[in-house]
Each structure stands twice: as C-alpha cells, then as structure tokens.
Amino acid sequence: MFGFLLRRVFAVTLVLLSMSFAVFCLQTIVPADPARAIAGPTTPLTRVAELRKELGLNDPVIVQYGRFLIRVTRGDLGTSVRTRKPIAADVRTYLPASLELSIVALAFGAIFAAFFAVVPAIVRWAHPIGLAFTAAGSLPIFATSLFLSYLFWFRLGVLPGAGRMSDHNFSGPTGFNLVDSVLAGDVTAATDATRHIILPALALAFPIAIAVGRTLSSSLRDVMQQRYIETARGKGLSEASVVIRHALRNALPSALAMLALQVRLLFGNLLVVELVFGWPGLGLYMVHSLASADLPAVLGVTLVLSVFYLAVSLVIEVFQTALDPRIAG
Fold first, then answer.
1. For residue 31, what pLDDT band results from cuts at 50, 70 and 90?
2. Of 64-78, 133-147, 243-257, 275-289, where does the model show the most confidence?
3. Whole-number percent of the chain with pLDDT over 70
4. What are 88-133's pLDDT values in tens digits?
5. Which of 161, 183, 260, 299 could form a disulfide with 153 if both were Cys (CB 3.0 to 4.6 A apart)?
6. Three-class HEC string of 17-83
7. What distance in Å separates the CA atoms of residue 94 and residue 282, rounded to the nearest whole number?
C-alpha cells in the first residue's frame, strides 16, 4: 500500500505541475492585458508599458512561470486585478462556501445513487424511480438549477433561492455555516443554513447520482450473476441481505471510479450553480473574475480547485484499493 501511495502522490504532483503550466500559458494567448486592467482604461500607453515591465509581463513565459511557482510555494497566489486583494485571501474568504456546498452535494449524490441502484435490485417494482432520477439528471445543469429555483422558491415559496443565510452577518470559526451554527447551538441559524443549501446542493447532486447510480447498478447486475450470489441465496438469505452484505462490496470499486470523475465535473458545475443561486463561493468569484479579465485570480482559483480534485481522487483511489487490493498492482 505504501508503494502505491508513493506512486500516486508522484503522479498527482506531475499532473498538477503540467496543469498549472498549461493554464499559465493561456495568459499569453488570451486577449487581455493585466497591466491595462490594473492601470485603468484612461491611463496613457507609456504608463501601461512601464507597468508591464514592473510586473515582469515582458519576460519569457518560462521565467514568469518560475516566479509563479516560487510564489506558490510561499502561499502567494498573486494579487487580484478586480478586488485589489491577495488572491490567497480571497480564496480563504470564498472557499468554505464552495467546500460546504460540494460536500453536501456529494453526500446527496451518493445517497441518491445508492437508492437509484440498490433499491431496484431488491424491489423489482422500483424501476420507475430510476427512470425519474434519469430524467431529472439528464437536464443541463443550468436548466436544473433554474427549474428548482422557479418551482421551490418562486412558485411554492418553501425554500430560499439565493444566498447562504438570511442573516448575512453570521460568521463562525470554520466558515462552514452548517457546522458553525450547530457549534453555537443556534437552532434558528442551523435551520436557515440548511434551507438555503438544499436547492443548490440538489442541482449539483442530480448529475452525480445518475452517473454513479448507473455505474453501480450495472456493476450490481454483473455481480448478482456470480456463483457465490447463488450460494448466498441457497442459504436462505433475503434478497436485501444478499445485495447489501455480499454484492455491494464487489460492485463499489467501479462506482467509486465514476465518483472521482464526477468530482471534476462538480467543480465545473459550481460556476453555474453558484451564479444561479447567488452562492458566494469560489465559483461565483471565478465568474466575476472571468468577466473582469482577472487572469491572476482565474489561475489561482484553478490551481486551488485542481489541488482539491486531485486530493479527492487520491482518497477515492485509496478506498478502491482497500476494497480490491488487486488495484494496487
């Protein structure tokens, strides 16, 4: 297991370096000038040229990238052109909101996927439930977000459709409103935070549930045809016991592999969902940065999200190896 972890950490490091270099090089082809954005539209060209020289934007790309890596090792992601603040500080401000939303969405997605795959394997009449989940998850993410917002917020008025909490001044030590409200023993704040997170989390969870649920369902069908399953049935075990105690463990590795892929899509979908629901996280921060041609902020957020994606993928691979040691080779 140690050798497997060492190989995976080395591979993750190479992927992260390659990704950061590719994204950094995009700055040279994007028709936006950070110096002009910092100086303003009315600043003379001579001053813009001086600013480009001060920022090192005239240096070769490899030299600029080297300086960028040195800054990153110090925890410095640069300064945002739009907010005029250190990008690392902006990330610390907006990251907890995105992480909280992502964790809840992954939990919803995993629960729905298990329900979508396991229940029809036990109860034959439950297949229409899978069809309903498939229909819900087949819509584009922006359509799902708008539909949920329209139905539950605008029409029914049962759930809020914007923001993290009604009390915008609420804050806690972790930045996770659900956790902080529980730690503070504030039932009203905990209820309010839960109601605000449900709709955006559901919008993110549906694609995860469909992809992981389909993979798990397909694996379960294959596993249920194995001889040891027939042996378990021959011992008089109920169908639910056969599926949960004997089949599910062997069907999980492929579902976990699909879950790792969905984490990458989740971070991409955050941009849309946070914009629709006004969720003040890194996705909304990224949208505003793109609109302002704030390339340093875009690069910094991309790097942070990539680190989280690779870390989650590594954890999932460890779980897969624990379930099936043959994966470690």
1. low
2. 275-289
3. 86
4. 999 999 999 999 999 999 999 988 888 887 776 666 655 666 666 6
5. 161
6. HHHHHHHHHHCCCCCCCHHHHHHCCCCCHHHHHHHHHHHCCCCCHHHHHHHHHHHHHCCCCCECCCC
7. 5
Nearest CA among 247, 238, 254, 260 for reference residue 314: 260
CATH of domain 87-328: 1.10.3720.10
Measuring CA to CA, which residue among 254, 117, 279, 128 is closest to residue 202?
279
140, burial (CB in 10 Å: exposed 0-12, middle 13-18, buried 19+): exposed
Model pLDDT for residues 274-311, shown as the tens digit of each residue: 999 999 999 899 988 888 778 788 888 888 888 888 88
Amino acid letter, 217: S
Give the amino acid at 265: L
Q: What letter represents residue 28's amino acid?
A: T
Tokens linked to 162: 């914007």
Task: Name the residue among 322, 319, 310 with its Cα closest to residue 16.
Answer: 310
The chain-wide mean pLDDT, for the chain, equals 81
The alpha carbon of 112 is separated from its chain's Cα centroid by a whole number of angstroms, namely 17
The residues with which 86 forms a beta bridge, in sequence order, are 79
Beta bridge partners of 79: 86
260 with 269: CB under 8 angstroms?
Answer: no
Asked if residue 262 lies in contact with residue 207, where contact means CB atoms within 8 angstroms, the answer is yes
List the domain boundaries for the chain: 87-328
